[in-house]
Amino acid sequence: MKKSIYSLFILAIMYSCQQTNPGSTNKASYTPDTTMLATAFETYKEKTLTHRRFKHQDIEPLILKRKAQDLFSVKTLGRSVQKRILYQLSHGNGKKKIMLWSQMHGNESTATMALFDIFNFLEGKGDGYDSIRSLLKDKTTLIFLPMINPDGAEIFNRRNAFDIDLNRDARQTASPEAVILKAAAEQHKPAYGFNLHDQHIYYNVPGTPNPATISFLAPAYNHEKDVNEVRGRAMQLIVGMNKLLQQYVPNGVAKYDDTHEPRGFGDNFQKWGASTVLIESGGYKGDPEKQYIRKLNFMIILNALIEIAQESYLQYDRNNYQEIPENSSKLADLLIRNIEAERDSLRYNVDLAIKRDEITAPDSIFYIRGRIDDVGDLQDSYGYDELDAQGLTFMRGKVYPTPFNSIKELTPQRAVSLLKQGYLAAQLTNIAGGRHHRIPLLLSSRGTIYGNSPTLGSQANFFLARDGKPVYAIVNGYLIDLNKEPEETYKNYVQ
Ligand SMILES: [Zn+2]
After folding, report:
1. How large is the average pLDDT for residues 97-123?
2. Which residue, among 373, 367, 371, 358, has the nearest Cα to 444 in the 3D structure?
3. 404 pLDDT exceeds 50?
4. Least enclosed by CB within 10 Å: which of 169, 250, 358, 387?
5. How far is the CA of 199 from the centre of ligand 1 (A)?
6. For 28-62, what is each residue's pLDDT tens digit?
7. Is 372 helix (H, G, I), strand (E, B) or coil?
8. What is the phi/psi pair of residue 381, to 5°?
9. Could you give the number of structural domains in the chain?
10. How many angstroms separate the alpha carbon of residue 65 from the centre of ligand 1?
11. pLDDT in tens, 423-469
12. Cβ(135)–Cβ(306) under 8 Å?
């Protein structure tokens, strides 16, 4: 009975509901109040985390300051290969134990940011959300392991310092990080698990140009992919999260294929009895630092915690999980269709898919290199940016004959005027300070143009021309429209 009263109370705030008895497990249809969650995010987002490449040293003070407060219990679980501390923060004293772990892949940090936003939210007071906070505190025990792979995060690398993929180390536990995560699971025996990751941004919802902004999986605990009570609940949770997401990224959600991976942590948590949800943050147009996707993480995770606390997720039909489409991988950063190219004096029409790789430099700054990822009939592929180049021909770029002394001699406007004359690269005598820039031109001490060819795998640097005059430049995989105002042409350009 108590549950029912709670549900009514909370749902009155949280949901617009069409049923008068939300505590029941029938097929009531609730629409999560996403405005409330979105507003809470803006209020509570952790402002010191602003991009994906933060490190252990950036989050450590955010964890340690909570030691002095009594809302969270902060614990040191052990150390990574390179001796960075793996922390655990727990919250609440309810019966429902929920474990959330993030960034076991060091370069997958979107949900980690959202966890710190959730910590801030839980610490708020007197803002209209207190009933949610008491609900979570009384009904759940939340166990957070925000950064499982700090050594990987240090160099923005997937694997740990032994080159082990921690999500393939649940069985063997050869790495200290996997030992720690497994020990935490054994100690707490959570009823629910959230396994938080990022996927590459080229996954799309099949048959659409929409990125799979979030993908889910209720991992299988055996090769037969059976669905027991535990896994069924994970599916129900996902149905609820998907419902929320559809309001923000319509048709932008997919799921992973559920082949059992005996080495995976998600699969094993499911086997150990925790209803486990894998959340994978993908891509979203215009969100390279994934700050919007971070917000979506905040919303769906917080909503799921509330749904667990009040058991409202039991309303969802787990069969709806099967209706979520499976990830396709047909996206590129830039798709150019119908280019007329020439090789060996033969002319042909071709589509080019271009992807931009992030290369991590030793100083941990990264730069972008564009690459021709596919060539041919790409009618069934998509790009975050697309161009129909019908009537345009592939054109090689030239190196500007006079070297520049320093980057300061170049403005983006000047670079665009050089591009218009067919120059794609320039020599820079003093390269120091010019390594990372936002000038849409290839700059190096020798003035080399890598790529300059419609060849598979080559760097994506070339022109598209009409009647021999460049109208588009492709520099480092970015499309630059030379007929637009200079500011427009390079505004998205990052080098
Ligand atoms: Zn991952």
Report:
1. 98
2. 367
3. yes
4. 250
5. 6
6. 444 567 889 999 999 999 999 999 999 999 999 99
7. strand
8. -105, 170
9. 2
10. 28
11. 999 999 887 766 677 889 999 888 889 999 999 999 999 999 999 99
12. yes
Could you tell me how far CA 7 lies from the centroid of its own chain?
A: 32
Residues with CB in 5 Å of ion ligand 1: 105, 108, 197
State the chain's mean pLDDT as an integer.
91
Query: Do 109 and 50 touch, CB atoms closer than 8 A?
Result: no
121: alpha, beta or left, given left = phi > 0 and alpha = psi -120 to 50? alpha
Q: Are strands 85-91 and 72-79 parallel, antiparallel or unpaired?
A: antiparallel
Measure 148 CA to ligand 1 centroid, in angstroms: 11
**46 and 179: one domain?**
yes
Q: Which domain holds residue 448?
A: 332-490
CATH code for the domain of 457: 2.30.40.10
Q: How confident is the model at residue 361 (pLDDT cuts 50, 70, 90)?
A: confident
CATH number at residue 195: 3.40.630.10
Q: Domain for residue 369, yes or no?
A: yes
The band of 494, judged by pLDDT with boundaries at 50, 70 and 90, is: low
Question: Cα of 228 to ligand 1 centre, how many Å?
Answer: 25
Q: Which helix (H) or strand (E) holds 346?
A: strand 346-360
CA of 169 relative to ligand 1 center, distance in Å = 13
User: How confident is the model over 100-104, as a mean pLDDT?
Assistant: 98
Same domain, 86 and 26: yes
Q: How confident is the model at residue 406 (pLDDT cuts 50, 70, 90)?
A: confident
Please give the distance, rounded to the nearest whole angstrom, from the Cα atom of residue 105 to the centre of ligand 1. Answer: 5
Cα(379) to centroid of ligand 1, in Å?
30
CA of 159 to the centre of ligand 1 (A): 9
Q: Answer whether residue 301 shows pLDDT above 70.
A: yes
For residue 221, give the amino acid letter. Y
